[in-house]
Design a protein that fits this description.
This protein folds into two domains: about 240 residues, no CATH class; about 130 residues, no CATH class. Helix content is about 30%, strand content about 25%. The chain has twelve helices and 17 strands. Helix 7 packs across helix 10. The protein is globular.
Amino acid sequence: MTDPGLAGAGPHGQVEAVLDRDGLQALVRVLRERDRTVIGPTVRDRAIVLAEIDSAEELPYGWGVELEAGQYRISRREDAAVFAHSAGPQSWKSYLHPQRVRQWSADRGADGALTVRAEEQPEVSYAFLGVRPCDLRAIRILDRVMTGGRFTDPAYASRRTRAFLVAVECTEPGATCFCVSMDSGPAVDDGYDLALTEVLDDAGHRFLCRSGTEEGAAVLAALPRRVADDTTRLAAADAVREAAEHMGRSMPPVDLRTLMRDTLEADRWDDVTSRCLNCGNCTMVCPTCFCTTTEDVTDLTGDHAERWRRWDSCYDLDFTLLHGGPVRASRRSRYRQWLTHKVGTWHDQFGSSGCVGCGRCIVWCPTGIDLTEEAHALHREATDRRTTE
């Protein structure tokens, strides 16, 4: 017999249903009952951050964010929306590709013999609740980087294989969002187990939910729900469409890969690097930056040693340090490397752009550098140069 609560089907054959607040609470409970560590947005330290949650009541009901270049603050909303906030300071990279990972440890025994032990990575099954479309794209990009080439990162692969993704379509983009320009939102396309679209109107507060995998459909079947109705479907689609029409930022409507290649000697690089601190904040908050380095540490006795892998940044002067010195010694060369790789040569290396339009690098830059503004400036300079030649 067909379950009446799962009778609706979406445009691509997904199972659809409508959840209310109790359904969202049940979603967290069911995922925990399936031995998953649920990570979701919650309010801590005057920010909406990602953290382990035990209940849906820990989600940021009634909180929003106010964003601008170099500015972030949370604010109370007039409604009880759960997901009406833009990307915060963290991304899911923090869990799939952690900032610090011990790789091995070594101990010298009393007899002088050295014992080296490879680090056993914990087996954790994450459930990510509230993955934005831009971050969903970022995870797919990291999949290509970390597992899609000749060499696979086993630690990443282990975390990623077990991860259950609950995506949330964006209905209220922030002032620094530009996912439309990068074709990464505000609607989700694929790569999720469940997808939610939050709807608040005269008919109430609810979530259109659709499955993307068999496991997603099984979890949905275990939740209190009702049949997806056309009113909710239409309201959800309208909200996502309106979000696409009200992006806070945009990239110039040109081939960014070509733009970066043709403007390597542009004067704009001097302008932007006069404002850049080379702090590396943009690489730390970027959901796709993946560079790492290793560091070896010992205790005071010298009998115990460890090797750790940690995030690194192409803004670090030592990042390209060779015997004769760093390859990119100037701030100009380091900023240019980051931006041209992110939206340009990333295509050559991994087959796509490395930017998903989340806007985190804009918000968390202490001097308010806006890569969309820089791209427009490069485009204007290139256009002016062509017209005067």
